[in-house]
From TrEMBL:
<keyword id="KW-0418">Kinase</keyword>
<dbReference type="GO" id="GO:0005524">
    <property type="term" value="F:ATP binding"/>
</dbReference>
<dbReference type="InterPro" id="IPR027483">
    <property type="entry name" value="PInositol-4-P-4/5-kinase_C_sf"/>
</dbReference>
<feature type="domain" description="PIPK">
    <location>
        <begin position="1"/>
        <end position="365"/>
    </location>
</feature>
<keyword id="KW-0547">Nucleotide-binding</keyword>
<keyword id="KW-0812">Transmembrane</keyword>
<dbReference type="Pfam" id="PF01504">
    <property type="entry name" value="PIP5K"/>
</dbReference>
<keyword id="KW-0472">Membrane</keyword>
<keyword id="KW-1133">Transmembrane helix</keyword>
<dbReference type="InterPro" id="IPR023610">
    <property type="entry name" value="PInositol-4/5-P-5/4-kinase"/>
</dbReference>
<dbReference type="InterPro" id="IPR027484">
    <property type="entry name" value="PInositol-4-P-5-kinase_N"/>
</dbReference>
<dbReference type="GO" id="GO:0046854">
    <property type="term" value="P:phosphatidylinositol phosphate biosynthetic process"/>
</dbReference>
<dbReference type="GO" id="GO:0016308">
    <property type="term" value="F:1-phosphatidylinositol-4-phosphate 5-kinase activity"/>
</dbReference>
<keyword id="KW-0067">ATP-binding</keyword>
<protein>
    <submittedName>
        <fullName>SAICAR synthase-like protein</fullName>
    </submittedName>
</protein>
<feature type="transmembrane region" description="Helical">
    <location>
        <begin position="28"/>
        <end position="47"/>
    </location>
</feature>
<dbReference type="GO" id="GO:0005886">
    <property type="term" value="C:plasma membrane"/>
</dbReference>
Length: 370
């Protein structure tokens, strides 16, 4: 069993074991072996849930996800299958994070290896996030369903051979595999953030010092428009303004808008309302509530060509943490002594980043009045 599979199993165990009584070692030898296994674990770290009651409350009362349905997504669908409940989907971006998807595609698990990021979420943002998401039902902030931290001393934590923290979040690409099986057009996605900032990988020596693979991890650009009615656009902008105000108040920068576009087949458009109605009674959907349409579940463009989903991701980079402060100092020295490129997206102020982010989001929308 490889590294990624062992990490995945530690996550699954932390989730599934919350529904079961953990078996205690039956004798002293078994207890000793269990302790040694934990201490010398390199990849399969013992994980604990952080603030489980708060996340359970969000899942049950505000997002309509039952405990049983949530646990089921982290278990094999069929007893005879040998597939793992979590599948690695690779390294995405510069953060060093690894991603897993549940077999049913409903949830993503993202590692949060940087201390500055997981400490910001646990110490500064967690309580405000829980309160905000409970009172802003139409928020575009990604829904976080669980937060895990390594428990106890282990070799893997010391050597950093496995991430010590993970989040479980919604997957707004849910349904893509089913669409592919039906022979529908490939879904498209963009990870959008302001590109006018200084990116060393792109801007130093014209990008000649960096590989194309590295540069491809920079923010995408959406060269099209989301055509919305004025009411839809105002609702979208209102949510984005409230969400980014919340993030700015807590010093977060460098977040992105993850945008998904799928082709709206005629039968899909005609069945959207009936599907929503049929799902109203379902309490197991990670994309609840299905009606009225939200940016989590899908908003149809006015021209009838596409259905869009959108979510704000990666809001764990906070200006007051040590690593961001150090990076800000380095960029300020660079701009002073070498060449003035301006700030990076990770070294600018929260209010300035918010302004550019909102300008980007409003720039990809075209309003069509009735």
């Amino acid at each position: 069993m490889g590294r990624t599979e062992k990490i995945a199993r530690s996550i699954v165990q932390a989730i599934v074991n919350t529904q079961r009584a953990k078996k205690r070692p039956s004798n002293l030898l078994a207890l000793l072996l269990s302790l040694l296994s934990t201490i010398f674990a390199l990849y399969r770290l013992a994980l604990r849930k952080v603030r489980p009651a708060d996340f359970a409350n969000l899942r049950r009362k505000h997002w309509g996800v039952s405990d049983d349905a949530y646990i089921t997504s982290f278990q094999p669908h069929e007893a005879e299958t040998k597939d793992e409940p979590l599948k690695a989907i690779g390294d995405m971006g510069f953060s060093g994070s690894t991603f897993y998807s549940t077999a049913d595609q409903r949830y993503l698990v993202k590692s949060v290896p940087r201390h500055s990021e997981h400490s910001f979420f646990s110490q500064d943002l967690l309580t405000p996030y829980v309160e905000y998401m409970a009172t802003h039902r139409r928020s575009c902030l990604v829904r976080i369903y669980d937060f895990f931290a390594a428990s106890g001393a282990s070799l893997g934590r010391v050597l950093r051979s496995a991430p010590s923290h993970h989040i479980v979040m919604e997957n707004i690409m849910y349904g893509r595999e089913m669409a592919k099986k039906r022979g529908e057009a490939q879904w498209e996605s963009w990870d959008l953030k302001p590109t006018s900032y200084f990116y060393p990988e792109r801007d130093i020596a014209g990008g000649a010092l960096t590989s194309e693979a590295t540069k491809n991890k920079l923010a995408d650009e959406f060269h099209d428009k989301i055509i919305l009615r004025r009411e839809q656009a105002n609702d979208f902008f209102s949510s984005l303004e409230a969400d980014t105000k919340f993030l700015a108040e807590h010093n977060a920068v460098d977040y992105s808008l993850f945008l998904v576009r799928m082709r709206a087949y005629k039968q899909a458009v005609n069945s959207m309302s009936s599907t929503a109605e049929s799902n109203m009674g379902r309490r197991d959907s990670p994309l609840a509530p299905p009606s009225p349409p939200t940016w989590n579940t899908g908003v149809a463009s006015v021209d009838g060509k596409y259905i869009f989903r959108a979510s704000i991701l990666d809001f764990f980079w906070a200006k007051h943490k040590i690593q961001p402060r150090f990076m800000t100092l380095l960029i300020n020295i660079w701009n002073l002594l070498i060449y003035h490129h301006g700030p990076m997206s990770i070294t600018t102020t929260p209010d300035e980043y918010r302004a550019r982010f909102l300008k980007l989001c409003k720039g990809i929308v075209e309003i069509k009045d009735d």
